Every structure is written in C-alpha cells, then in structure tokens.
Amino acid sequence: MTTLLGVMPVVLLLACSRQLSSPAATETATLTHTTAVYRTVYVSTASQLTSALANALPGDSIVLADGTYSGHFTMAVSGTAAVPIILQGSRNAILDGGDINTGYVLHLKAAYCTVRGFTVRNGLKGIMTDGTVYNLIDSVRVYNIGEEGIHLRTFSSHNTILRCDISYTGLKTPGYGEGVYMGSAKNNWGTYTGGNPDKSDSNQVLNNHIGPNVAAECIDVKEGTTGGLVSGNYFDASGITGANSADSWLDVKGNYYNIDGNTGYNPSGSVLVDGFQVHCVYSGWGNYNVFTNNNCTVNASGYGFNIQLSGSNGTTVGNKVYSNNTVTEAVSGVSNIALSN
Question: Of 75, 130, 255, 283, which sits most exposed with the smallest number of CB within 10 A?
Fold first, then answer.
C-alpha cells in the first residue's frame, strides 16, 4: 500500500483502490480531513512511462519495472517541497534513447522531483535539466552518451546530483563529453538565457563516481554560475581526450564554489595535465573558489591545483587552495598559488 508522507495520522478513513488496466497499475490512498492523494504508479512499458510522467501529481511515486524503455522521456510536472514526484527503479530499469547522435534520454523541466536508481543510456545527452529547482538525481547510472552525461542548464538551481555513476560520455563529440556540466558557456547565453548569464546556481554534486572514459572533464562549472558544492566525488581520468582543452578532472569558471573531499585518480599515460583548474573565460568569473581536503593522484606534468591568475578575459581573485589537500605525482607541484592554512 502506498506510504502516506507529511500528513499527521488523525482520525482516518483509508480508501484504497488498485487499477490494473492500461496504461499502468496505480495504488491510491486518501485521508479524510485532507485533500492528500498520494499514488504509486507501476509502469513496465515506454508508453506507460510517458503517460505516467504526463499525468503525474505531487506525491506520486512512479516505479519502473526492470526492462528497457526505448525513447526520449520528459518530466515536466512539478511536485512540492512537502511531496515531490518520484521516478524510481533498479539499475536494471533502463531508459534507452537508442542513438548517441540525438536527443535527451531524460529531460527534466520541473521542480521538486526525484529520479532514483535506474540506468540512462544511448542519447546525445543523458539527463538534461532546463529551468529546474530543488530536484534530486540520486544513484542513477549514466553511460554510452554522445555528449554530456548530466547537464544542469537554463537557470537550474538548488539541484543535487548524488551517488550517480557516470562513464563513457562524449562518444559523438569528445569536447562536449563532460560527466557533469553546470550552466552554459557564455557563447550559448543568447540561445538559452536571453543573453544573460545562465545562473544555474547553488547546485550540489555529491559522492558520485565519474569516469572512466569521460571524454572531457569529469565536472565542468561554467561562467555565470555561483555558489555550488562539489564534494565526496571520485574522478577517474582514464579515457579523457583533451578535446576542447579538457585536461583536468574539474574546471571551475564560476564563482564561490566549495570543492571539498574529492578523490582524483589518473593512470599514467593519459592526457590529463592538472588535477583541478580555475579559469577566467569571462570578466568577473572564476573567483572566490575554495579547495579543501581533496586527494589527488595526478601522474601528470602539471599541478594538483592550477589557478589561472590572469589572461585575455580578465583576472581571477579570491581563490584559495588549502594545505589539507593531498597531491601526489604532480610534476609541477601541489599548486601554482600559495597554500592557505
């Protein structure tokens, strides 16, 4: 029976019904003295999934049976802070876009949604968010993708990417093959954000495994974004290509990011140059980022932390690399800036 969340167990009249007809089996539970109706919707085909997403209500849990769901899917109905909409399944429930050359396998365009546990593969982009807030992408496997694995775009803020496994990205366009991509490059602001910075702010990327065979950076933080947290992740540089100047695990071009407690590994012989980088690609950006407690096995000619100080686009300020970071096998040293204590 469906679990009832966020409602006090006052005098109840529990009315349960199960609908087993197409498009999906649904359980509902209703409480007197409230208007809450929370449903568990079981799906086992692509058409049932499409229908369940289109007709979702706040509080719905859409449960994927194991199997392959072929197509491109859009989650555009919002939940609420108290009762999010949940889409969940095991790793054996697979959303398959069918072609690494086109389309988003899963397109999130809603607020207060959780996607959890299943697999996303075979699309130009794995999971794309546009204009989303307070979503959770949890324990999803993303692989075999033409460009980015997970992309937070178009003012997508306060979202969390947690415990995901991302590999084999950039199979079509290696230079766009980031594992996680936050925001939009300045050259795309005219397309997606009316010429304004893409303020995809305050997002968190936590405890994910990114790599191997992520063709560009494991994480790319774009100019125009502010105030995110990147923590507890494991980065594997095996298969990084160097295309489009991608030669680090993480490249920060935004402001006020906290990068803490990540572990980076680079096998000898890859094209990685530095472990972590900060760049100013647009004046006023690439500032006040803080690196703490990261463990870096670089095995490359560069630094553990390479902070661009100035360039043709401007000067960075306020970035700090703390002495509690651990760096091994970086030929140029721990950091190109003085360490903070």
Answer: 283
